[in-house]
Design goal:
About 20% of the residues lie in helices and about 45% in strands. The chain folds into two domains: about 30 residues; about 100 residues, no CATH class. The chain is α+β, with helices and mostly antiparallel strands. The strands form two sheets. A five-stranded mixed beta sheet has the order 1-2-3-4-8, with no helix packed on it. A three-stranded antiparallel beta sheet has the order 5-6-7, with no helix packed on it. InterPro entries: DUF5412 (IPR035406). This is DUF5412 domain-containing protein. Pfam families: DUF5412.
Length: about 140
């Protein structure tokens, strides 16, 4: 009886550990190792409700590999004069690994196709449901 309980607890521990490893490898984006960050561009949505902020991240200035992060920012306004009160509701919707020499003048192709659809570097994303992460391909 004790052996079954021990075996069951051991299996549960192994499963939980596996879930944590998979989450950290494929879903969590850890920004702490990137010491060299610069802003690419900021593009407002057609209805001015959202903004995409593109940032380029590198381990250091001379690093050959770079990461492109697309940060979706929801803008919150006070009516009737439309004063911007917050742009803190953010989420990462684009994460790509590229060769640093492929990024020209810190620009990444960003085009809003409509109020909720955006094209970033030839990837079309719905901002409400999609997220591109090169690790999940």
């Amino acid at each position: 009886m004790k052996r079954k309980i021990f075996l069951s607890l051991f299996l549960i521990l192994i499963i939980i550990s596996g879930i944590i490893v998979i989450y950290n490898k494929f879903y969590k984006i850890d920004l702490s190792p990137y010491n060299y960050t610069f802003h690419g561009e900021m593009v407002d949505s057609p209805n001015n409700k959202y903004e995409i902020r593109i940032e380029i991240l590198k381990l250091d200035e001379d690093s050959d590999e770079a990461y492109i992060m697309g940060l979706l920012v929801e803008k919150i306004y006070i009516e009737p004069n439309k004063t911007l009160i917050s742009n803190k509701n953010t989420k990462i919707i684009y994460w790509d690994k590229v060769n640093a020499s492929d990024i020209n003048d810190n620009l990444v192709g960003v085009i809003w196709l409509d109020d909720t659809t955006i094209k970033i570097s030839d990837k079309v994303l719905n901002i409400n449901s999609d997220m591109y992460d090169y690790r999940r391909i």
